[in-house]
Amino acid sequence: MSSLAEKDRPIVQLLLNTGTCPRCILRFCCVGSQVLYRHPHKDLMKDLQEFLENGGEKEDTLCLDGADPPCKRIRLEPREEGADDLNHNGAVPQLPAAGGGNAATESPAGKVCNVCLGILQQFCEADFVKKVCQKVNSADYQFTSFVFSVSLPPQLSVRERAAWLGVKQQMRNLGLPLAKDDIVQLKEAYKWIIHPQLSEELGVPADGKSLFEVSVVFAHPETDEECHFLATACPDCFKPAKNKQSVFTRMAVIKALEKIKEEDFLKHFPCPPSSPKNLCDALEIQCNNGAVFVAGRYNKYSRNLPQTPWIIDGERKLESSVEELISEHLMAEFKADSFNFSSSGREDVDVRTLGNGRPFAIELVNPRRIRFTAEEMRRLQQAINDSSDKIQVRDLQLVTRSAIGRMKEGEEEKTKTYSALIWTDKAIQREDIAFLDDIKELKLDQKTPLRVLHRRPLAVRCRLIHTMKCEYIDEHHFRLRLKTQAGTYIKEFVHGDFGRTKPNIGSLLNRTADILELDVESVDVDWPPTLAD
């Protein structure tokens, strides 16, 4: 894409005269050459001065050929009919500089830009790039590419609109047509400049799909209140949100700018905008790695260990949990900020999980380390298993976010196998319980158990007991092995929960029954994949 042409001359001269930096001038002239924005600030200023001084003699002063992709644009206003036309004889009249002097030579090179507030000036220099890279390197992340994001002060959108309206107003006063109605986004131009420098300094490519994000948050306290008039003009655009410190977000400001009439805007804000005294502040330079997911199966051998931390009214009831025994090792090795634990169902604190174990997955948030070999994962699994006799982990492996969905798919249709030690108040003989072995696909109606009613909604759930197998122990005890639909409350199926589960073992045997011990013997979920020992 070619850069400046003769028709851009009035815009260049006006913007230079009002304190706009060379790169913002290129944006307002819709220059899409990425390479051109990367030229040093002083060189661009010199080229603009020559462009103005030489008239039409050197029209291609800033023309560079390149295979740049088409750029994104900000649409500032609807295209007006005839906007692309020049005057009647096809030429652009010369525009006198403000004050009768040369606008280009009167614009000091060190002045803070009245549009970008310095972002396309000092924050494109090598010193700032090195500062960002020092922050990245000191954070000790593993990454093979990066995506760069930038958060801009919302008042930049107001200043951008004001600068354009200022150009439009003066061009109209001089009887000149306005040839453009959209400009290159500041964020896009900034990334064109900063990406190659960051990539060279960090030694990895910029990639829009990378999971490793480097972000910079800019602020400009001096001009913070410049958005406030929009709240009066367009109150519907500024609504408080719980997770926002201010109603003046970038999106709210852009929405208001789209809504406000031009004449109302001009009453409240100077066009062109005044030059600020100070540069923007780079408030934060942050790094963030995309989450890593680890899956496996756990066995729980203790009858005094909850799956997740047991805390009631802020008081911890038991010192540890399955979740903590596993996650503390993963957090340390992956150097993550936090984690989220999930599993295929859960067992009560006094229930053991035997057999092949229960599938689980852990999301590790913002990990510094992300690459582990199969051998390293085996060693990590062994470290977890050596740390406690209450749990054991198997098939520990890295998985994708999408793969975790398999753990939850069709959860209601899955089956689980249990072993329950049952007590009865009246004496029993082998023949009293033998008939239970013949019952198949027994349908239950289970009201939400009293013990979980504080955290689950009241409902009647239909569940199936697929098969049962009895093992007589003595006159008051027998062991019952059950294969059930996932989600069946086994304890309530035994004792009836004051009639809230029908039928139940007590009603089937016509006596009071209670459960003394319960073990989960299998969770029939074919995930995660079994690994060789």
TrEMBL record:
PANTHER family: TRNA PSEUDOURIDINE SYNTHASE PUS10
Entry protein name: tRNA pseudouridine synthase Pus10
Record keywords, A-Z: Coiled coil, Cytoplasm, Isomerase, Metal-binding, Mitochondrion, Nucleus, tRNA processing, Zinc
Domain of life: Eukaryota
A Pfam short name: Pus10_N_euk
Cited NCBIfam families: pseudo_Pus10arc (TIGR01213)
EC number from the UniProt entry: 5.4.99.25
InterPro entries for this protein: PsdUridine_synth_cat_dom_sf (IPR020103), Pus10-like (IPR039894), Pus10-like_C (IPR048741), Pus10_N_euk (IPR048742)
Entry's localization field: Cytoplasm; Mitochondrion; Nucleus
Protein's GO biological process: tRNA pseudouridine synthesis
Organism: Promerops cafer (Cape sugarbird)
